[in-house]
Amino acid sequence: MCGIVGYVGRSEAAPILLDGLRRLEYRGYDSAGVAIVDGDRVETRKCAGRIAALAKLMAEKPASGSFGISHTRWATHGKVNDENAHPHFDASGKIALVHNGVIENYQALKEQLNRDGNHDFHSQTDTEVLAHLIGSIYQQLDGKDSKARLVNAVRAALKQVIGTYGIAVVHANIPDFIIGARRGSPLVLGVGKDENFLASDVSAIVAYTRDAVYLNDFDVVAVERDKFEISSLAGETGDHQVSKVEFTAEDIKKGDYPHYMLKEIFEQPDSVRDAMRGRLSLEDCTAKLGGLNMTPEQLRDVGRVVLTGCGTALHAAMVGEYLIEQLASIPTEVEYASEFRHRNTPMTPDTLVFAVSQSGETADTLGALRESRRKGYRTLGICNNVASTIARESDGGVYMHAGPEIGVAATKSFTSQLVILTLIGLLLGRMRNLSTAEGTRIIKELETLPGQIEEVLKLSDQVKAIAKKYVDVGGMLFFGRQFNFPIAVEGALKMKEITYLFAEGHPSAELKHGIIALVRPDLPSIFIAPDDAVFSKNLNNIEQIKARKGPIIAITSGNGAKQLKGLANEIVSLPDVADCLSPILTVIPLQLLAYHLAVELGRDVDKPRNLAKSVTVE
Ligand code: G6P
Fold first, then answer.
1. pLDDT tens across 517-541, in order?
2. CB contact at 8 A, 408 and 608
3. Domain residue limits, the chain
4. Residue of 201, 359, 405 to test ligand 1 pocket, by largest number of atoms within 8 Å of CB
């Protein structure tokens, strides 16, 4: 949610900043801007719209200099226009600031600034207030060392802030010097040779360096060409580790695919394989998950599981509830992270909490994790981003190893989450009632999944033809039962996110409790009805819609296709798999359906309107 890139070195800053912003565009794409210091002038270019608009502006009016900061915005305070685009300046016009997060007390700070001096604000943003606050403190501080003075001004201003921030600051008269700071919004320092970088996410800078320092909350970093110093908000210096980024610039290229989303859908045979690699033990018929940091005794003592997350990760958690209860017979609940963090959920001391998050930065999921830990529950993460805040703040966890996911609509991270939740269910189950035979069966089925996913991907053209046929529909309903009820909800979310069509997902049987009133010829119902234990129940619901002239698109498997013939208008037939693993296959045609329909409708698949991939505000 909002992306920041900063550069200080010997090269021209502008192309590096623009390139980094393009890589961070998934974090927000309402407006963009740069501030590049040239001599003792801060050259700023900013405009509403995508990075492409900013690049055009910069081509018309170039800005030269070897250090600067930049930003791509997802609007929170103030509408989307040129004035509200970052960077923002202090009253002197010398200090430029870019910001990711929300300054909750910005009104009070603004009033305080207006009482104390002369402040003209040019935008409606909370960020501009912070820039003025830093500038006003900078004016009041003494000292010949202007670098130290600016660091102290930033620290003093941030101490007054209630809210979240990842920021980068430059001063027109302090050459080759950038300050970064974070609280609640991610910020990483890229360490190069005679050049250093700041970014919200390493993908912005991985083309230039793979050495990174992941900043912690309340860190303030002073970055120069050949050195950096990290201290706390209180002014103490501490140790910081330089880590190697685990992916390369190659991994974040689109290759021959027209969209990242399609690339990521097609990467699922590999990402699913990577999620289970080295984690299966046929000998003990179980899973090995050392990252949980729990002894067998502690795992055996788990009496309850709570799974929390947002969006697609929450839908994976919903499948996880069925999985863990089925495989391990442990009572499991799913909680929206945004609700869980603010309510007083009664919990038993033997509760194990999992925060599920691809990015590991989602503000509500992080809030839920912190609240859970504060209350003393062991809280683990299921994350893709290894250096993320959730990964670092949890008591342990399981990494997805899905590789970078750039498309805003989550695809491969979802199937990786499902694999990991299966492994957790298998591990907990084998410590309880799950037999060796059942454990072995699950492992064998897991191992065949990547090959089966390849088979499912071959249906992409069939799904594309369906998308073309239904391009004029007024919306879509999604239905499923048991393990595939959450897939109905996830299928509807994919559809909403990238086609902007109205879509809802429900348990199939709920149809007759109200939803059936919506059924009409231009509103297809997508039934996720594999040939499983509840297939015949789904069949009844399909009949009910058919009787009311609603078109049916069925996702099925095994003998399902035969029974659906003449009943469903379209049938997509998948390989057979254990009931509990079927969501890993059934979700793929739904990802493809949303994708192909969005392309048909001319939507911006990788950057759908109003969305951002990593939501770091509440
Ligand atoms: C945003 C994205 C969704 C994603 C959700 C949770 O809303 O648009 O695609 O599922 O955040 O993200 P996380 O990184 O926590 O899995």
1. 999 999 999 999 999 999 999 999 9
2. yes
3. 3-248, 254-456, 459-608
4. 359
